[in-house]
User: What shape does this take?
Amino acid sequence: MRNPIHKRLANLTNWKHYTFMVCLCERMYPNFYFYCELEGELANARKYRNILDLVWEFLTIKNIKINFDHQLEKLENIVPIKATSQSYAIYPAIDACKGLADLLHSIVAGETLEQAISISQLSLKTIIELLESQLGKLFNEEELKHQLLVEQELDVQWEIYRILKDCEKHDVNLILDLKNELRKAEISNIGIELQK
Assistant: This one.
């Protein structure tokens, strides 16, 4: 699905790309948590949460030193394997891990624009595949625009972009506000509510 935001993301600086990406990963986290809860693997959900927290700290604590190569290794150890579960929940969980892995690779390599676009597309892909699985049909571009979950995801991505676009300097308070707002919502891109 084409998303006009992808061209606009080129206007953002690196820290804004990182913030955009971590916001989308935060929205995918409940999908991973839900899968771990189903499989009795909440320890893995805590590991994902810890890695995500370190990215937020990287963006908000000056001169913090984090070994993101090591965090990538930790993440690789908790990615679900398709053959181990019959539940559809495994697919959004794998996407959540791929999104976080892309973000970590971006931090390690310092390449941000391509990864920001990739995670934006990934989040939409998770939604589209769920809708197509539920309804047993493939959607064309026009039909997708009128699906509520797709509309909501596009709205969220544009809102995050607008907030970041208008920010002139690396604003820690703005980043923390975004984090707190997303955590307070406790709802994922596919409508999974985090219930702990």
